[in-house]
Amino acid sequence: xxxxxxxxxxxxxxxxxxxxxxxxxxxxxxxxxxxxxxxxxxxxxxxxxxxxxxxxxxxxxxxxxxxxxxxxxxxxxxxxxxxxxxxxxxxxxxxxxxxxxxxxxxxxxxxxxxxxxxxxxxxxxxxxxxxxxxxxxxxxxxxxxxxxxxxxxxxxxxxxxxxxxxxxxxxxxxxxxxxxxxxxxxxxxxxxxxxxxxxxxxxxxxxxxxxxxxxxxxxxxxxxxxxxxxxxxxxxxxxxxxxxxxxxxxxxxxxxxxxxxxxxxxxxxxxxxxxxxxxxxxxxxxxxxxxxxxxxxxxxxxxxxxxxxxxxxxxxxxxxxxxxxxxxxxxxxxxxxxxxxxxxxxxxxxxxxxxxxxxxxxxxxxxxxxxxxxxxxxxxxxxxxxxxxxxxxxxxxxxxxxxxxxxxxxxxxxxxxxxxxxxxxxxxxxxxxxxxxxxxxxxxxxxxxxxxxxxxxxxxxxxxxxxxxxxxxxxxxxxxxxxxxxx
Length: 487
Hints:
The protein has 487 residues and is α/β, with parallel strands linked by helices. Helix content is 44%, strand content 12%. Helix 8 (304-313) runs antiparallel to helix 9 (319-340), helix 8 (304-313) packs antiparallel against helix 11 and helix 13 packs across helix 14.
């Protein structure tokens, strides 16, 4: 009778557990919900010391003739806001003249008022020719001709006005319209502009705005508190007819977003982008950021949202410990929401009193769990524990700085439009095109982050940048532009 080697059985069991975990993860990616929210079915409500108990708001009710009915909540999803200065066009629908006479007395009706119904209407975008007329004057005694100088445009010898250039950039990088779709839209209005010409306009106009881009990066690197992330984009390989992977890095601070196009993801890129920067930076656990954290001029605040994601994905293995970690991380974010609503000094005090003890408790628990062993080396729980323990020296850094945050979601949100856009325009055509895209996206996303109209901003600065003093270029950045129009 053949005997089975216990070591072989143990190996098979570990392999089976690992494959089962991978299968469950794959099933959740394909069929399950992507939200990382975890709800405990029988969990008690969390009570914060000094803050009272969190209670669900009571539902309002309204009386009807036979019973009480829940009052419909207005969440804002079905609302509409119309600016006060929107032009109004009146369309009068009157009675026919023969119906304005009383059939009994024969006297005409007397107008006593109007019934007015308002609807929001739309007229398709219109094109027009902008003619710049400069009268010429002959000087006395035949000394020559006097004429006002032609304003210097953003692009020399270009038939496109700055308004059309701004519209094209916004359509491509804010509304995510590929140029072939924009070409078709123009055709519907009887305007035929080739895709190649549109591409030239996009690149030339974006590169002409590079002084704004450079100044914005300078302002961000002087801020002392930044958020950084990177995401892949495809670039067309010259002469090969296929694409290769490049990267867009984003650095965010105080509403300004700078995207930097790079051909690869090498660590040296992060050092070059943040050259001369000193202060706090938020990021995930990519190796380039871990290297920066070793420098004395940097204070690294790793992202707790990424830590939570690692434990969320560890669905098999020690489910009890995984749920315990997720619950404590959730408490950490709950306290942080309270802290963000407080003044800077009280924010730091709350973090030190409430959040630091939670972090210490999680650090001890993770270390003990690793010492206990009985974890598959490649299991997702072992990966999550390794990810967490590798960040222990930096996990509390955010608690000492009022402007620091618990996560890197500001950079994650800034880079999300790029992920949406690349699904539409698919790739950048060259290194030059990637640099142009980085400039345009930086200005447009900064406008969106600050709540200003990127179309209005771009048209205005395109008309002014050529004559604007170089030593006052800061006045044309989105945040300064917003302040100037609000005065």
